[in-house]
Amino acid sequence: MSTTTPARAQSNVQLALAERFRAVRRSTLRLVEPLTAEDMMVQSCAEASPAKWHLAHTGWFFESFVLREFVPGYRPFHPDFVWLFNSYYQTFAAFPEKRLRSSFSRPGIEQIFEFRAYVDGHIERLLDSNPGPEVLKRIELGVNHEEQHQELLLTDMLHAFFTNPLRPAYRELDAPVRANPSAGPMQFLRFEGGLLEAGHAGETFCFDNELPRHRVWLEPYGLAERLVTCGEYLEFMEDGGYRRPELWLSDGWNAVQSRSYSAPLYWSSGSGEWTVFTLRGDIPLAQMKNAPVSQISFFEADAFARWAGHRLPTEFEWEAAAEGRLLAGNLLDSGRLMPMPASELAENGSQTASALVPDAPLPFKRPWQLFGDCWQWTSSAYLGYPGFRPLAGSLGEYNGKFMSGQMVLRGGSCVTPAAHIRSSYRNFFAPDTRWQFSGIRLASW
After folding, report:
1. What is the mean pLDDT of residues 345-354?
2. Contacts for 214 with CB less than 8 Å, ≥ 6 apart
């Protein structure tokens, strides 16, 4: 029986949320420390946004959906910021075309930092005022929204530096990457399936697209113990994978032909030997062969699975395998900033939590790399669960409006904050998306 009074319980919730808010806001600023003001202006592809825009938009979110709604008489930092840093909320305000974000030379970066400090001060005062449950929910949503943009910021900077002829590193390697021993032939773990529940359970935070929890029927299936490696993907390429239309979905083959795909996005062979561009700079493929392949589209993942004689898992097969497992892996908090070989986690067929989480009380169990390294494409279209209801008002545009033409990815990546991920988390992108940290886990019947 709990002896905590409701008032004290709410106070504890506020204190925990206030600390999480501060930690996330500080973390975003640390992520841009290696960047110059010029770096923060670059928008190198249609999917990406400049780092400066990410800094401003995350402040905009708190100002728009928390401060303007719950602080009487609140004065926005700047009237033009209300629309300038809106992303896609049509019911909230007009906004500039996404492709123009790199032209926002004004406001300058110092004014963006002032904007963030202004918002932070008002949120801190709001948290000190004993706000109601809805305010706390909105702030928690804003914190999770900012963590999404931390990942996007690094993803976008990787593409920006890749398109720079100098190929600068976001962070230099602390030590040379060593060639790791192979994790061995791919093995599949068997799962019984049956009538299971999927979707978020409990009272902790989740996005609306993770609800409601509902029942799903799964036939017995197998799931690969680890992610597909760069070396295995190279075998697919050398076997003519990009030249064999029978391996590809129709739209995927069209993409291969029209965009001249011949390798994952950040692979280059101009010097005669393949290299892989990472946030740590260019690394020879020979040193990355046993790391998970990354920056591939759903179409490429699906074609590889067909070539290998397997398939991609459904999102519910993935979730059933991941639910209840330790939420640890090569995530942003590890500081590695690129996928790591399963052989660095596995030793004699086992994986210990202490390899990634000091003093962790429980051992990992296969399958490995469920969380971190690369987002894992699934064969599931991004749709609402039975009974799905988006959030009310403009926030209903957060997830629900994208439930068309997208595929679900699971598991997080090496640039996903550890506190942000869970087994029910649903990421989603169009099937031709390649600039994300996205990889492959195979499944079988």
Report:
1. 41
2. 197, 198, 199, 385, 386, 387
Nearest Cα residue to 331 out of 280, 369, 367, 384: 369
Residue 23 sits at φ, ψ, to 5 deg, of -65, -40
Domain ranges, ordered by start, for the chain: 6-163, 188-444
Equal CATH topology for 6-163 and 188-444: no
| DSSP code per residue over 171-211 | S--SSPPPPPPP--S--EEEE--EEEEES--SSS---GGG-
The sign of the torsion formed by the CA atoms of 321, 322, 328, 332 equals positive
- Give me the CATH topology for the region 188-444: paralog of FGE (formylglycine-generating enzyme) (3.90.1580)
With CA atoms as reference, report the closest residue to 120 among 104, 143, 151. 143
* Distance in angstroms (rounded) separating the CA atoms of residues 147 and 339: 19
pTM confidence score: 0.93
Distances from the Cα of 330 to the Cαs of 105, 118, 290, 320, in angstroms? 35, 34, 15, 21
Q: Which one, of 188, 176, 281, lies nearest residue 228 by Cα?
A: 188
The CA-based dihedral angle spanning residues 21, 93, 76, 129, taken in that order and rounded to the nearest 10 degrees: -40
Higher pLDDT, 292 or 393: 292
pLDDT at 365: 64
For residue 73, give both structure tokens: 């008489």
* DSSP letter string, 234-297: HHHHHTTGGG-GGGS-HHHHHHHHHHT--S-TTEE-TTSS-EEEETTEEEEGGGTTTSBP-S--
Tell me whether strands 375-381 and 438-439 are parallel, antiparallel or unpaired.
parallel
- Token representation of residue 176: 């040379």
CA atoms within 13 A on the CB side of 19: 5
User: What CATH number belongs to 6-163?
Assistant: 1.20.120
| pLDDT per position as a tens digit, 400-444 | 999 999 999 999 999 999 999 999 999 999 999 999 999 999 999
pLDDT at residue 345, rounded to an integer? 61
Round to whole Å and give the CA distance between 282 and 275.
6
Residues forming a β-bridge with 281: 278
Residue with tokens 């029986």: 1
Q: pLDDT, tens digit, for every residue of 304-347?
A: 999 999 999 999 999 999 999 999 999 999 999 999 998 776 44
Query: SS3 helix, strand, coil % of the chain, rounded to 5?
Result: 40, 10, 50
